[in-house]
Amino acid sequence: MLENAKIEARKMGGNLIKIVEHKYPDILSTCHRIIVNVYKADSIDIKQSINVEVPIDTTLDYAILYVYRFGGGGALVTYNLHLGDSTLCRVSNKSCQEIKITKKGMNELWAKTESKVSLPINVKYGEKYYLRCGITGGIFIGRPSLEYIDAKTGQFEYSSVCKRKNK
Questions:
Q1: pTM above 0.70, yes or no
Q2: CB count, 10 Å around CB of 105?
Q3: Which helix (H) or strand (E) covers residue 49, if one does?
Q4: Do 149 and 67 contact (CB within 8 A), yes or no?
Q5: Which domain holds residue 105?
Q6: What is the pLDDT of residue 42?
Q7: Were both Cys, which of 14, 32, 62, 110 would link to 38 (CB 3.0–4.6 Å)?
Q8: Local structure of residue 32 (DSSP, 8 states)
């Protein structure tokens, strides 16, 4: 439900959501139900909101994007990850990839199967960004999910996916 709320918020032009009510499954419904408020903040510091670590080297002329996807539902569904109009990589089940990004400033990461999902990214040279990818339910095929992860969690998850992949 949370992922669906994020998708709907983006469709409305919002970039922040606040859960104001959460109803658990009960006799009337077997689903979790949430009510959210959608907000649009004009100046979001992506670094602050996703807890990106301190720059690794200010002399670098690129940033590093760590892209990974755990196993799980939608194992056969793959999709391309794009930065603007460039294709960065193919995201598949149990995949991990390290990508150098040289397109500095505000950009858009996006992926599409039956619907498009996108995230803004403010690329700053010398920084590391962690992107957890996945699949959420769709009508015919799964939809991509993209989520920024803080550096500490991202390092751990990325390395665990890569270790399993290399076995």
A1: no
A2: 8
A3: helix 46-50
A4: no
A5: 43-166
A6: 63
A7: 14
A8: -
